[in-house]
Automatic annotation (TrEMBL), chain A:
Signal peptide residue numbers: none
Family note: Belongs to the binding-protein-dependent transport system permease family.
Positions in coiled-coil regions: none
Transmembrane regions: 32-54, 90-119, 131-151, 238-259, 288-306
InterPro entries: ABC_transporter_permease (IPR051393), MetI-like (IPR000515), MetI-like_sf (IPR035906)
Residues annotated as domain ABC transmembrane type-1: 91-306
This protein's name: Carbohydrate ABC transporter membrane protein 1, CUT1 family (TC 3.A.1.1.-)
TrEMBL record, chain B:
UniProt superkingdom: Bacteria
Phylogenetic placement of the source organism: Bacteria, Bacillati, Actinomycetota, Actinomycetes, Geodermatophilales
Name this polypeptide is given: Raffinose/stachyose/melibiose transport system substrate-binding protein
Keyword Phosphoprotein: no
Pfam (any one): SBP_bac_1
Keywords: Signal
Signal sequence region: 1-32
Length: 315, 449
């Protein structure tokens, strides 16, 4: 839901240069005439994205159960979200998930892409690419159910651990207070890894081969080639990966809802599930909306610097 | 690309969006109804005569509970001019949509609704008191209807807003085959005996209790204990949101402490916090677990899967022979204020409490007491386990007290507070004192607002 909302500023940044040149041209009636061509898309965007966004902001200023009479409470809902330790803990959980949804997949994705890049194209690379990408194709709900089994007391995770002599650390991973959040996070890593690998692999293919050749002629090691050729060449792709996965982490809902519902305790409660719970179970529409607005701001604050760092023009 | 231009554009976009929102906000009135949500006509004449015209009743019920469909089929059999259009949704979807569906112009005539308080106060439900008087529902046990009475400041008194299709009671199922191996041949009659049985099971390597807790199912054993320790009136006051009611008391703390002791002793499954209801049922009927705290709605299922190996008893008290206190609730159905055919829906509700065939359908489909006039015999159950649950329900009705689930006290208390507190409690992440204090705080937060 929020991904469509928060993704909006990205294209405007990219298009900024074009808009700036256009502005220097004499403006006239034509510019308004052009509006007609974007009007249908704009209308749909306004109705399905801007209107819900604005009503959410409006609801966040009220105490409302969704049906009865609403009471205007000003910023009280925001104060609650930003001062209640429980609600802050929920936001902190989302930040922890960034480690699993973003850092791990991007790092492993870089590694996988760099390794696969050197290989001649053949069945091995095709198979590895497909295997890595499959999690992206599986609906998150189905993935959540399967991982629920994997992590259960008699699940594959514990069977494997017992098989290699680590029977002592087996546990119901999602029921354990210490391991639940990392366990949920790893599902995210698994889902996002394929996307990152594929994006980065495509990015590598676009890097000028002569750069690699030159580096090798200069006697650069594989590590140096990676650091000085591959990494800089992939800056934009990394930016896209980080942006998409960070949004997935901060706005996560499906995996948590299916596997733990936020438990045990509130160990894995994330803003997405909390918003849902507040709005539909407690019927605190105002507070749910305030949480949603805070989440949106959080996502923007997180991805705008990433955009600036990675989309900067190559000067 | 120029970063400064980019930033300026963002600033402009933000300023523009804020200005736009302000303009729109100023143009919008507060969300929600202006109090006219109720479609009720105060002067409407009710009728207890069934119309002779062709009428189609709209039902909105819970998926997986075909009882309303079975009753509807039987009703059409008896009254061919009444047909039914039945729509069903999963429980969570149903409860989340119910208010909006009832507020809409196309409100159903009868709806399965577990939480009546907010919709009643929002004027979405039909006040059933006129039917109560006209049909003489005062001949029904008041204890069964009490939970569906709602006034402006509390539940448990005031106007009647729903009727039950079956009145459920909870207790403990036990695996008699495991019991026989352990030398346990009789159901325990005191809490001490229950605990002794659990200790015997644990010592023999059997799982003493099979209980789900992924969404807080340990609320069943917790309240089973709490019911025996506290004055049931205090518990009812709390679930009915009576002013000043609290769960932060020594009895609830003691019940929590016992739950924690049981957890520490390994009486609950190690993965209870991720164990879901369906898996619990599968494991228990597959022979894992001596006891399971659950309700009469599973009696037909368990009788089928476990045959004679399963029994049911009400939670015993601290002393043998104590009057039973059990939690239970009607499977409540209600008529929306905007229903098109309220008279026919009310006739249907009265019929299913009094018609012999209908009562038999309820007993054998839900395992629950059918309610209705106290002088009507309870229909015969199709299996011995359902006989036991029915008998237990009858015992509570005649000699004991029925209290509502603490999890039903407010709309959000179960998922928002009871679940996390119980999960923390059995993992020693909180103390019994802190757990009840936290639940009380969440309760006051919700009731106060």
């Amino acid at each position: 839901m929020s991904s469509s909302v928060v993704a909006a500023p990205v294209p405007s940044l990219v298009d900024g240069a074009g808009a700036a040149t256009r502005r220097r041209r004499p403006v006239g009636r034509r510019r308004w005439g052009q509006l007609i061509w974007v009007a249908p898309a704009l209308a749909v965007y306004a109705f399905f994205v801007l209107r819900p966004l604005i009503t959410s902001v409006q609801y966040s200023l009220y105490e409302w159960n969704g049906i009865g009479v609403a009471t205007f409470v000003g910023g009280a809902n925001y104060v609650e979200v930003l001062t209640d330790p429980e609600q802050l803990g929920i936001i902190a959980n989302a930040v922890v998930l960034v480690l699993f949804f973003t850092v791990i997949p991007v790092a492993l994705g870089l590694l996988a892409a760099a390794l696969m890049h050197g290989l001649p194209s053949g069945s091995f690379t095709t198979v590895s690419r497909s295997v890595l990408f499959i999690p992206q194709v599986i609906p998150l709900v189905a993935a959540g159910i399967v991982w629920d089994w994997v992590y259960s007391t008699n699940g594959i995770a514990n069977q494997l651990l017992s098989a290699v002599g680590l029977g002592g650390i087996t546990r119901p991973w999602l029921a354990d207070f210490d391991t639940a959040l990392p366990a949920v996070g790893l599902i995210g890593s698994w889902v996002q890894l394929g996307l990152c690998t594929l994006l980065l692999l495509t990015g590598i293919a676009k890097i000028d081969p002569s750069l690699y050749e030159a580096a090798r002629l200069d006697g650069a090691s594989r590590l140096q080639v990676f650091r000085h050729v591959t990494l800089p060449g992939l800056r934009r792709e990394i930016g896209v990966c980080v942006t998409v996965t960070m949004i997935a982490a901060l706005a996560s809902f499906d995996i948590v809802y299916i596997t733990t519902q936020g438990g045990p305790g509130n160990q894995t409660m994330v803003p997405g599930v909390e918003i849902y719970r507040l709005a539909f179970s407690e019927r605190e529409v105002g507070q749910a909306s305030a949480m949603a607005v805070v989440l949106m701001v959080l996502v923007l604050v997180a991805i705008l610097p990433v955009q600036r760092l990675t989309q900067r023009s190559d000067q | 690309m120029n970063t400064r231009t980019g930033r300026r554009l963002v600033t402009r976009a933000v300023v523009g969006a804020s200005a736009l929102s302000l303009v729109l906000l100023a143009g919008c009135s507060a969300p929600g109804a202006d109090g006219s949500a109720s479609g009720q006509d105060e002067d409407r004449e009710i009728s207890t005569e069934l119309t002779s015209e062709d009428v189609e009743l709209d039902f909105y019920i819970e998926t997986g509970f075909p009882i309303a469909q079975e009753l509807a089929d039987e009703f059409t059999e008896q009254h061919p001019n009444i047909t039914f259009n039945i729509r069903s949704d999963q429980f969570a979807v149903l409860t989340e949509n119910a208010s909006r569906v009832m507020a809409g112009d196309d409100a159903p005539d009868l709806i399965r609704l577990p939480q009546l308080v907010d919709p009643a106060r929002d004027g979405l439900l039909l006040d059933l008191d006129p039917y109560f008087d006209a049909y003489g529902w005062d001949a029904f046990p008041e204890s069964q209807l009490q939970q569906m009475r709602i006034s402006d400041d509390a539940r448990g008194s005031g106007s009647l807003y729903g009727m039950g299709i079956g009145y459920s009671v909870t207790g403990v199922y036990w695996n008699k085959a495991i019991g026989a191996q352990l030398g346990i041949t009789e159901a325990p009659t005191t809490i001490d005996e229950l605990e002794a049985d659990m200790a015997t099971a644990a010592a023999a390597g059997q799982q003493p209790i099979m209980q789900f807790n992924d969404i807080g199912g340990i609320a069943f054993p917790f309240q089973a204990l709490y019911n025996q320790l506290a004055d049931p009136t205090d518990i009812a006051d709390w679930t009915f949101q009576q002013p000043g009611a609290t769960i932060d008391n020594p009895e609830a703390t003691e019940a929590m402490a016992t739950i924690q002791e049981w957890a520490d002793a390994g009486y609950f499954p190690a993965d209870a916090n991720s164990l879901d209801y369906t898996t619990m049922m599968g494991r228990f009927s597959g022979g894992e677990g001596l006891f399971m705290f659950n309700g009469d709605w599973e009696s037909a299922n368990l009788a089928e899967s476990m045959g004679d190996d399963v029994g049911f008893f009400l939670m015993p008290g601290t002393e043998a022979g104590a009057a039973p206190v059990a939690m239970g609730a009607p499977n409540s159905y209600t008529i929306p204020a905007k229903a098109e055919h309220p008279d026919e829906a009310a006739f249907f509700l009265n019929w299913l409490h009094t018609d012999e065939t209908a009562r038999s359908i309820i007993v054998n489909s839900s395992g629950a007491n059918p309610g209705g006039p106290t002088d009507l015999e309870i229909p015969e159950a199709a299996n011995p386990l359902t006989e036991q649950t029915l008998a237990a329900g009858a015992t509570v009705g005649s000699d004991g007290t029925l209290v509502d689930f603490v999890a039903n006290a407010t709309a959000g208390i179960y998922a928002g507070s009871i679940r996390p507190e119980l999960q923390s409690l059995i993992d020693d992440r909180t103390t019994p004192e802190d757990a009840v204090a936290a639940i009380q705080a969440a309760y006051e937060d919700e009731v106060g607002s």
